[in-house]
DNA sequence: CCGCATCCTCCCCGATACTG
DNA sequence: CAGTATCGGGGAGGATGCGG
């Protein structure tokens, strides 16, 4: 994902790659419901994530213009993460996919409760 | 993906899992533009796919109600694959994600041509 | 408090060969 | 023509520990 192999990539695969991986979607869902969130607060809400994965996911999301990182040089250090305007604009497409998923789950008799993070992005 | 570990799954992750993996999206994009396609025709359009991956992907898509498999008992054997009505209904959400991706690619100065399969699902 | 480096594990996917 | 069986490599992601 970090490799500079800029091949032919269709916009759909491109978009899916940006939010791909295990943790990016949960991160986006949390940031969607709050103005800005501190690193450790984010970590507590994402049960089971390691520092490694959280910082890496945030870094990639930031590089792709989805997430904004605001660092305050205080003691103790404080860093706030939030969705950029670009980042917020992906919520609508994701919601429509989520709607499709909900309908499809019902139709396929796949009874599953919703996860805590992604319950509702609206 | 075949494991019976029906945990809590949000509709969004659920939907993304159905079209996840390396080949399912290209397959869907091809089937979106034709009424029905034979196995070997599908294989020729998907440069580089193996029998293993093609049959496995089709099987999972069929189990999930996205793809319909019609078998004709002729000699030589003939099998036609097509999108179900359910399958076609996911094209709209995917298109809106694709639109977002296109806009975002432009804004991020990521110049990339589109791939052959996903050029346009409409 | 925030984040990186290293090592290790698991499973997706490819290559190859074979069958009705 | 339309698949299945088996083996193995590589990359994503987890565990642990260190650094500013």
Your description of this structure?
The structure is a homodimer of 122-residue chains. With 122 residues, chain A is mainly α. Chain A has a single domain (2-120), classed as Winged helix-like DNA-binding domain superfamily/Winged helix DNA-binding domain (Arc Repressor Mutant, subunit A, Orthogonal Bundle), CATH 1.10.10.10. Helices cover 48% and strands 11% of the residues of chain A. The first copy, chain A, has six helices and three strands. The first copy, chain A, has helices at 11-18, 24-32, 39-45, 51-63, 85-88, 91-107, and strands at 37-38, 67-72, 78-83. Chain A has a three-stranded antiparallel beta sheet with strand order 1-3-2. The longest helix of chain A is centred in the last third of the chain and has 17 residues, at 91-107. The first copy, chain A, is globular. The two termini of chain A are 29 Å apart. Chain A binds a DNA duplex (20 and 20 nucleotides) through residues 1, 21-23, 38-40, 43, 48, 50-56, 59, 71, 75-79. Chains A, B: Keywords: DNA-binding, Transcription, Transcription regulation. Chains A, B: GO terms for molecular function: DNA binding.
Quick rundown:
Two copies of one chain form a homodimer. By secondary structure, chain A is mostly helical.
Spans where pLDDT lies below 50 across 5 or more residues of chain A: 1-7, 118-122
- What's the overall geometry of chain A? globular
Strand-residue proportion of chain A: 5-15%
Largest interface summary: A-B, 42 and 41 residues
CATH homologous superfamily annotation of chain A: Winged helix-like DNA-binding domain superfamily/Winged helix DNA-binding domain
Strand order of the largest sheet of chain A: 1-3-2
User: What is the CATH domain class of chain A?
Assistant: Mainly Alpha
């Amino acid at each position: 994902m970090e490799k500079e192999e800029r091949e032919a990539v269709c916009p759909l695969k491109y978009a899916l790659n940006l939010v791909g991986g295990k943790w990016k979607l949960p991160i986006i869902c949390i940031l969607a419901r709050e103005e800005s969130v501190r690193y450790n607060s984010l970590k507590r809400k994402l049960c089971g994530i390691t520092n490694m994965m959280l910082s890496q996911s945030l870094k990639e999301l930031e590089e792709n213009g989805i997430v904004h990182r605001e660092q305050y040089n205080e003691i103790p250090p404080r860093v706030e993460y939030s969705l950029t305007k670009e980042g917020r604009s992906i919520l609508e497409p994701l919601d429509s996919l989520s709607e499709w998923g909900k309908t499809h789950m019902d139709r396929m008799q796949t009874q599953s409760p919703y996860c805590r993070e992604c319950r509702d992005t609206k």
